[in-house]
């Protein structure tokens, strides 16, 4: 029997702004030299030295349109044999791009807090991006909606492979907020909301399944956060999202990340 | 400045019952031969080959009284130099032992479901251990109370080291349910409840701090789960619990587990 499908989400490596703590949404920065070196080493470690991810099991890569995510992907894939790489389909997905920070783009948390204060905001409680979102950028509901849509698509790809009894590790290269947010929604955090009539019309874009179109997905509901999920995720950090009991109706978070004993049988 | 304190929680290696899926609470089973081999390799990988945990930073080990947890600890510590081991204080803590399964000890999930059905239970909704607990064993409230107490103690040790500007990785060797439950409470899942007058009298037992008694901790509230946190954790799996922004008031879950790029600066 094929192993249970997984989604392995990898945050891009270090940039000048991840180093300084500046919010980086649509600004298209490359990795620093340290970031390049680190992600190359990470690829070697994960695909070869420790064999934490078997390249044979990777079916799709979903990647943010931003340079830093794509560069991270390319550096890590240097450790995957050329022959194998041909079989992995790469999908650039706008839905997994970073939070649109609007007025807060390029700023530090302390600067954002001051800016909001000067605009008369946050008099009763401190700013929380997970609840309050970004002025002239995305609200938490908007961010949650598009990440819920990305999750639906990925689960559909998992389902198709699972029904064929094929392994399906999907890799996701994205960002600090988008991965933490998506991870939280994946294993059931956040609040569920019915889609508006307009949102219902937005069919979940099809991912092309090796030439065959996969069936459309319609969403009746989506989820979004109203509080901080309290996660740590460094540049280059890697999250493993899977399913309990090998059952695709039971999405779960792998608490150990990718570093788990090779022969363990997981019944939890 | 010393790195932010962490709690690294390690589930014991494979036993005959973790292999078969039988609930193992107080039953005192040893590891299987595969389990022994795997945990020895894991120790080598974590402390030496990949240097995921620096033995120099480990201050305390908190371990369940059960053989399988202690055996796992000893196998992994084979990869820590003798000289360094002398400086690590080992605390056997009843509060981190596995859930007391009561009537369900040694049984499979399917058998428990049948047993409960034969007793007229679960007519309206299926059994959920995280909410319904175990007959003649511990309720979820009871389990949550003692794990909250263990968390308070560990945070106190972190605080003492942090104030002295000393590194403090604490290792915890425990069990599938106790680690998943403790992890969920660590980063804020579950519901908070006021301690009863009796519970308030139960001072959090002191851990001896290298000969000096550390101050008592009193708990006004504790937390417990009412739903499944949806975590995967295999035998030998390892969870990293820390704090956001280096701030001990912001407990958080490391989404990547122990496998994070060595030079990353984490600002999230």
TrEMBL record, chains A, B:
Pfam families assigned to the protein according to its UniProt record, in alphabetical order: His_Phos_1
Active site: residue positions: 12, 98
Binding, substrate: 24-25, 68, 98-101
Gene Ontology MF term list: sedoheptulose-bisphosphatase activity
CDD domains for this protein: HP_PGM_like (cd07067)
GO biological process, one term: ribose phosphate biosynthetic process
Protein name: Uncharacterized protein
Organism classification: Eukaryota, Fungi, Dikarya, Ascomycota, Saccharomycotina
The gene coding this protein: TPHA0B03220
């Amino acid at each position: 029997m094929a192993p249970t499908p997984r989604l392995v989400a990898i945050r891009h490596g270090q940039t000048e702004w991840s180093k300084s703590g500046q919010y980086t949404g649509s600004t298209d920065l490359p990795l620093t030299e340290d970031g390049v070196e680190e992600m190359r080493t990470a690829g070697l470690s994960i695909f070869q030295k420790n064999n934490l991810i078997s390249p044979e099991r990777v079916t799709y890569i979903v990647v943010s349109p931003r340079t830093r995510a794509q560069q991270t992907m390319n550096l890590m894939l240097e450790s995957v044999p050329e022959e194998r790489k041909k079989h992995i389909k790469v999908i650039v997905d706008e839905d997994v791009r970073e939070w649109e920070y609007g007025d807060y783009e390029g700023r530090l948390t302390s600067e954002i807090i001051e800016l909001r204060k000067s605009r008369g905001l946050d008099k009763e409680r401190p700013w929380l991006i997970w609840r309050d979102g970004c002025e002239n950028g995305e609200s938490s509901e908007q961010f949650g909606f598009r990440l819920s849509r990305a999750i639906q698509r990925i689960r559909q790809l998992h389902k198709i492979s699972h029904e064929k009894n094929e392994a399906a590790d999907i890799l996701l290269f994205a960002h600090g907020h988008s991965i933490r947010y998506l991870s939280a929604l994946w294993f059931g955090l956040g609040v569920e909301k019915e889609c508006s009539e307009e949102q219902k019309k937005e069919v979940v874009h099809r991912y092309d399944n090796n030439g065959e179109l996969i069936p459309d997905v319609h969403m009746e509901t989506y989820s979004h956060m109203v509080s901080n999920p309290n996660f740590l995720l460094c540049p280059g950090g890697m999250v493993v999202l899977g399913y309990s009991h090998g059952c695709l109706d039971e999405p779960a978070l792998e608490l150990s990340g990718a570093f788990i004993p090779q022969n363990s049988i997981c019944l939890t």
